[in-house]
Amino acid sequence: MRRRPARSERGQTTVELAIVLPLIVVFLLFVVQVGVVVRAQLMVTHAVREGARAAAVGEDPTAAVVAASSLDPERLVVSRSGGDQAGELVTIAVEFVAPTDVPLVGAFVGDVTLSTTATMRVEG
Q1: What does the alpha-carbon distance between residue 112 and residue 36 come to, in Å, rounded to a whole number?
Q2: Which of 75, 72, 67 lies closest to 48 in space, CA to CA?
Q3: pTM
Q4: Would you say residue 2 has pLDDT above 80?
C-alpha cells in the first residue's frame, strides 16, 4: 500500500524543484558555453593549418586564415615567422578572442583567448 503524504509534505517536491531547477539550467548553459569555445578552438586550428599551407606555397596566410573559417576577422591576429626561401620552415600563429555570449554564464566567464601555431616547409 502507498502512503499518502501528509498535508505538510505536499508542497515539498515543488519547493525542491524550485530550488534545484535554476542550478540545473545554469549548469546546462555552462556546458553550452564550453561547447562554443571548443568549436572555436577547432576552427582556429583548422584556420592556422590553412594559413601555413598558403604560406608554404607563397600565398597570403592572413587571407587564407580568414577564408578558411567563419571566425570574426576583427578578433583574429595572424603572424608569420621564417620561411623566406624554399626549403625553410614557415610558422604561422593565429590568436583569436572567442566571445562568451551564452546568457548568464558568459558574463561570469569573460572572453577566452585561443591561440595555436602550425609549421610547414616552404615549397620551391
Answers
A1: 11
A2: 67
A3: 0.81
A4: no
